[in-house]
Specification:
- The complex is a heterodimer of chains A (266) and B (166).
- Chain A is α+β, with helices and mostly antiparallel strands and 266 residues long.
- Chain A has helices spanning 12-21, 34-39, 75-80, 82-87, 89-95, 101-106, 109-115, 122-129, 142-145, 214-222, 247-265; strands spanning 5-8, 25-28, 47-50, 60-63, 66-70, 132-135, 139-141, 160-166, 170-177, 184-192, 198-203, 211-212.
- Chain A folds into 3 domains: 5-50, Uridine Diphospho-n-acetylenolpyruvylglucosamine Reductase, domain 2, CATH 3.30.43.10; 59-166, Uridine Diphospho-n-acetylenolpyruvylglucosamine Reductase, domain 3 (2-Layer Sandwich); 170-265, 2-Layer Sandwich (Enolase-like, domain 1), CATH 3.30.390.50.
- In chain A, 33% of the residues lie in helices and 23% in strands.
- In chain A, strands 4-5-8-6-7 form a 5-stranded antiparallel β-sheet.
- In chain A, strand 11 (198-203) and strand 12 (211-212) form a beta hairpin.
- Chain B is an alpha+beta fold and 166 residues long.
- Chain B has 2 domains: 2-77, Ubiquitin-like (UB roll), CATH 3.10.20.30; 86-165, DNA polymerase, domain 1 (Orthogonal Bundle), CATH 1.10.150.120.
- Chain B has 5 helices and 5 strands.
- Chain B has a 5-stranded mixed β-sheet, sandwiched between helices.
- In chain B, strand 1 and strand 2 (11-17) form a beta hairpin.
- In chain B, helix 2 runs antiparallel to helix 5 (146-165) and helix 3 packs across helix 5.
- The chains are: A alpha+beta (266), B alpha+beta (166).
- The interface between A and B is medium-sized, with 28 and 28 residues.
Chain lengths: 266, 166
Amino acid sequence: MYETNYHRASSIDDAVAQFAKGTDSKFLSGGQTLLPVMKQRLAAPSDVIDVAKIKDMIGIDVSGDTVTIKAATPHYDVAQSDAVKKAIPALSSLASEIGDPAVRYRGTIGGSLANNDPAADYPAAVLALGATIKTNKRSIAAEDFFKGLFSTALEDGEIITAVSFPVPAKAGYAKFPNPASRFALTGVFVAKTKAGDVRVAATGASQSGVMRVGPIEQALKANWAASALDSVTIAASGLLADIHGSADYRANLVKVMGQRAVTAAG
Amino acid sequence: MSTVKLTVNGKAVSVDVEDRTLLVHLLRENLNLTGTHVGCDTSQCGACVVHVDGRAVKSCTMLAGQAAGSNVTTIEGLAKGDELHPMQAAFRDNHGLQCGYCTPGMIMSAVDIVHRHHSQGSGGKLDEETVRHELEGNICRCTGYHNIVKAVLDAAGRMKVAQAAE
C-alpha cells in the first residue's frame, strides 16, 4: 500500500470537510473493497476519511412501508435485524450471503453501493426494489444512481448517508456465488411492488453492471411463478464473459437465478 | 505517522505507526503478537482473524487507525494463564490442526461462531452444516476440515457448560 493519511470523521459534516482538504481523498467505510484495492496499489488515495463510526450513519429504521438502512450499517447487522427480516426478508437474506462472516462484520451497504462492483449483491436489491439513495446533498432514485462498472451518480465528495427501500408485496434473491470469491457469478433479485408492478434486477451478469431484466419482468407480470420463466430467453449480448463463465452461461444463469428467486419469494 | 491507542488482550497500548499500517502488522511487528498470521493477504484465507470489539474480523483488511479505541483480542489473549480456552483444547483433543498455520484464525473465527449461536438462543447446538458454512472465510490446506469441524462442535458443548458454570 502506498502512503496515505487516515482521518476518522466525527460527523457527516466533518467527513465532507476532511475530504475537501485532501488532494485525492476517498471515503472509507468497512474497507472490505477499498483496502484490498489499495494493498494491490490499484488505488492510492492521498487521504482516507473513515465514516464507519459516525453515529448518524449507523442504524436501521422501519416505519410504515419503508425500510431505511443508514449507510455505515454493516451487512451483519442488516442480516440480523428482526425488523428487516419481517419487512423485507429477501433483503435480510441477501445481506447474510455477502462474502463471509468476517467480511459481513465490516462491510457496509453504503460502501458497497458507492463502489458499485458489477458483481456486488446490494445493487440488485436497490434497483429491483426501486430504493432511494440519500446523500449529504440530495436523494437519488436507483434508476439514476448506477452508471456502469464501478461508476455512480455520486459527485466528488458526496457521501451516501442512507438507503430507503419501499416494502414490496413479495421479493426474493438468488445468487450463484463464485465458489472461490463468493461474489455473485450472477444474482437476480425479483420484486412485486404493493402497486402490482414487477421489477427484476441482475448483478454479476452485464458488462455495464447491475441491470433490469425486461423479459423476466414481463413474464412475471403476466404470471408470478418460476414456471413462467421456462420459455424466457435472455440475450447473451452485452453480458460478461471471463474464465468463470461465458456470456451464454451467464444468460442462462440469469433465468435460472430468476426462477430460484421467485421460488424464494413465494 | 499517527499514535494509535487501543486495548489488546486486556492491556492498553499506544503505538506510533504509519497511517497505512494494517492492524495485523501493528499486532505482529509493533506488539510482537505473532500468533496472528498473514496468509493470503487478500482477505480470503482468514489466518489473520482477530476479535475487534467482540467481532471476528480479518486484521489484514483493517487499518490500525480503524481499530483505535477498540478492544482487540488475539489468539494470545484466549487462554487463562496455563488453562487453554475450550476451543483451543478442543482443537488439540480432536487433532484439528496439522501444520498449524491457519489455526489461530480458525480458532478466533470458531469462537465467534459459537458466541453468535449461543447469543441467538440456539443453546449452543451448532450442527455440522452450519459450522462448515460459517467457516467459509477460513482456508485450511492440510486437514480437509473434518477434524476442525469436529473440534468446533466439541468446543460449542464445552463453552456452553463453561458459560453455565459462570
